[in-house]
Amino acid sequence: MPKDFISLLADLEEEEVIKLTKKRLEAGDEALTILEDSRKAMEVVGKRFAGGQYFIPELVYSGELLKQITELVKPHLVQSGDTKHLSKVVIGTVAGDIHDIGLNIVDFMLSVNGFEVYNLGVDVPVKKFVEKMKETSAPVLGLSGFLTLAFDAMKDTVEALEAAGIRGKMKIMIGGGQMDDEVRKYAKADAYGKDAMAAVFLAKKWIGDN
Q: Region 29-51: what's the mean pLDDT?
């Protein structure tokens, strides 16, 4: 029996998964459905990493595969609203964590929903988050993390924003593999977003757009 899209991506079968992505788009599959399937596949990758079946090289490779899929899917996503940006959002994966899969999906979904996104990438030092929030005056900050070591880095980032006297000017959401509402409380963030659509919903709610 041929493997489905989620299995192919989770098994890191590049040629087959890219071929199937193109086939699905040609057949009229919704771009968002393909992205959602990609997210499910990345959850499998995350479980395999946590269970010792996959290691850092596989994580990095899965991220590269996801970028390829995203590039193929991008032109098929309908831009919502007009081209005027709703507001600014700064996002990044916290210090010590190099995982950017969920981060890139959130970047993508916020962008197509009209936000101006400043994506700081992975392993972002606390200082860089503080500097960027000062520079952009963005009302929303998204902290991403996949590994448990991200818990402390998230907390350190929020505390550094407090120390800089700018914490009150923004709302902070967290998201990623091991994150949940307990981690949100620990990190002193405002909300936990379970996926990219939750991030979009939170950002819109915080700037008063829904």
A: 85
Q: What is the pLDDT of residue 210?
A: 54
Q: What is the pLDDT of residues 129-159, one digit of tens each?
A: 999 999 999 999 999 998 888 999 999 999 9
CB-CB contact of 88 with 136 (8 Å): yes
* Alpha-carbon torsion angle 207, 132, 176, 68, nearest 10: 100
Q: What is the mean pLDDT of residues 24-46?
A: 87
* Residues 6 or more apart in contact with residue 146 via CB below 8 angstroms: 46, 59, 93, 97, 99, 101, 102, 176, 177, 178
What are φ and ψ of residue 146, in 5° steps? -115, -35
Query: All domains of the chain, ordered by start, with CATH?
Result: 5-76 (1.10.1240.10), 88-206 (3.40.50.280)
Average pLDDT over residues 106-122: 87
Q: With pLDDT > 70 as the criterion, what percentage of the chain qualifies?
A: 95
φ, ψ of residue 30 to 5 degrees: the values are: -65, 135
Q: How many Å apart are CA 197 and CA 194, to the nearest integer?
A: 8
Reading the block at residue 207, the tokens are 């700037």
